[in-house]
Amino acid sequence: MQDFWWPHFFLALIIAAVAVVIGLFFGWTVALLGIILVLLYYIYRNLRGMAALAVWLAAGGIGDLPEAQGTWDEIFYGLDRMARRNKRSAGRLVSALDRFEHAAQAIPDGVIMLNEQGQIDWLNSVASVHFGLDERADCGQFIAYLIRQSVFRDYLEGHDFREPLMMKSPSQRDVTLSVQMVRFGAQQKMLISRDITQIEKVEAMRRDFVANVSHELRTPLTVVGGFLENFIDMDALPREDFLRYCGLMVQQTDRMRRLVEDLLVLSRLESTQNRLIESRVDMADLMQSLYQDALSLSAGRHPIEMVSESEDQIIGNVDELASALGNLVSNAVRYTPSGKSIRLHWGWREGMLCFGVKDEGEGIAPHHIPRLTERFYRVDRGRSRETGGTGLGLAIVKHVLTRHHAKLLIESEIGRGSCFSACFTADRVVKQKPG
After folding, report:
1. 59 occurs within a structural domain
2. Are residues 266 and 289 part of one domain?
3. Do 149 and 157 touch, CB atoms closer than 8 A?
4. Which residue numbers in the chain have pLDDT < 70?
5. pTM for this one?
């Protein structure tokens, strides 16, 4: 197409030659009239082609190509080919933009694109939740007008975006966000937000855990250290006092030992390297063992009953289950007043096979129940220390049952006792045939 002018050049030469011949034989007036007619026809064809081009362009370059001949046919063909190429490029661009938007919407972090004036160009759905923004209505608005927290305003005005900003979500006050501005392009910026509420909670739990462990160990160490200092300072100590002090030290060291053992159990349960080794658990033997432990711990202070309504067994780790269910039994013995009964039960309940420990203790207020499995959480801290509890028993129970895809159900009423049940889903049950 780039050489389309050559035919027109030769045509012009032929017309000129014909005009000269006509002029020589018929006169120059006739030759001039012929040239004028040819030029008028040429102009008509070009005007017709331009009109067809104008109509085609007005329609957006879509539809069938206008019918034309000669040069205009080549022009229309070239324009159509260019339009198709541009359409394919635009389609690829739109597809890439759609993929980008879908990817940005799938990102778990909030993303807000800002122009050089600080106006919102685009935001994903996570950012709209984090900041309470409307993905459509708030585009074009100034970010500083929509998020009016003073810490955020200071962050924007400081222009120091090397470190993220920790702030509360404007739309959800119990959600903590980590917000950071990132510059890109010429003057554009991107605001990235991340929900760190759970991370904050885990960090707070870690701090509380360290503080609680330190506190729980400090008390017995202080007692033992105080007695040892008295032994050093005293020249002579009556044997009765010496034995009494040694007994108190044994109690405190035993308390530290149980605390360390429970901490090691929790650490092992939480370790990703600790793979659960499962087998069929003979619940009849385990129930009998738990019953004997309850009798030994009670030392005759409580009437203890064992009821087994099912011979079905479960799949699990017998050592972990013995530890978890043993914690439920020992808690019942510790916190049930003398003379009150304790009942161990094994049977089906609401489609699950459950081991339950029911006591006639003082009961637990409803607001305490959701927190009972927290480490070192105690309903009555003084009574727990008197009974020798470490505050980690129910945390161990929760971890063991979670590893076995089981549930811990807690029912309690003040003055009427409590019932703690470890319930296993049907997929972990091994049905026993009668007889």
Report:
1. yes
2. no
3. no
4. 1-13, 15, 19-27, 30-31, 60-66, 68-71, 380-390, 433-435
5. 0.54
